[in-house]
Amino acid sequence: MSFHIEAITVLLNGLQQGAIYILLAVGLSIILGTLKFVNFAHGALYLIGTYAGLLIALEVNLTSGQLQAWGFGQLGLGLGYIPALLIVPFVVFVVGLAMERWVVEPFKNRPDTDQILVTFGLAIIVQELFRAFFGSSSLPFSQPSWAQGPPQVPFLAAIPISSWRYYVIGITAVLVLIVYLLVEFTDFGLVVRAGTRDPEMVELLGIRLSRPYIVVFGIGAALAGVAGVVGGPLNPVNPTIGNEILVPAFLTVVIGGVGSIAGAVLGGVLFGVTQAVLVATYSAWAQVGLYAIAAIVLLVRPQGLLGEAEVAP
């Protein structure tokens, strides 16, 4: 493999991994920036989205867990990936609405430590429930047959990565653009941004912020669900994936700037490409590199690359 092909392959792998971070970070960022709520259960939403996508798209054989003990050796609808991409966001959106109503709302005005403890505890509960029902073994979430090989177009056909990675990048770009337009150029987004800056004034104008806030939380949850569907075929699927991806997602938000969609995109790309380069060169330093970047950014610019000073931690 020539050097330029290898370099492009590493870059595209980094953009694909960054796309997963971006989907999670955009959801986390709008939740943290709007509701001022620290959601350590965001990884659990990714976990739910991954398993939901797997069971909608495919039929899987269970080798352990309570479901297998009850006689459900094979589980799944086998509807394919497109139905999974359409159904899972709505499923996780509803889960997000329920979570906002019964977890976020009671703790919204409590200290950050209380929010972290309750949401992290919820994440552990969700993880252990999936472990109990599906077992600890990784389940096969194969890429769709129509996206397994390189795209048959000039130049890209010579790059040895599957078409699914291009789809991940494209889906992420479309969804982030939709969320950005929703927040920046609609009446709904205007209310959300105004509520973030001066919630008392918005309430005095007769606008109930609880309604747009619950929708914001649902949108953030739905993005995590989509991240689970598109990222599932690229990584082992097991009950620990939610908590494993939580820290990189939070670091992406922090270095990009809390509440900044553009910052989440920049942070995700930076993290994804850095991780891919380190995996290809010094794999033992791949995770260390992410923390090093976060430390450097926070030392130089505490509010994040594109964050505003008033939302700095």
Automatic annotation (TrEMBL):
The keyword Mitochondrion does not apply. It is a multi-pass membrane protein. GO terms for biological process: amino acid transport. Pfam families: BPD_transp_2. The chain crosses the membrane at residues 20-38, 45-62, 82-104, 116-134, 166-192, 213-234, 246-270, 277-300. Its main location: membrane. It comes from the Archaea. The keyword Transmembrane applies. InterPro entries: ABC_transp_permease (IPR001851), BCAA_transport_permease (IPR052157). Keywords: Amino-acid transport, Cell membrane, Membrane, Transmembrane, Transmembrane helix, Transport. It is found in: Cell membrane. CDD domains: TM_PBP1_LivH_like. GO terms for cellular component: plasma membrane. Belongs to the binding-protein-dependent transport system permease family. LivHM subfamily. This is Branched-chain amino acid ABC transporter permease.
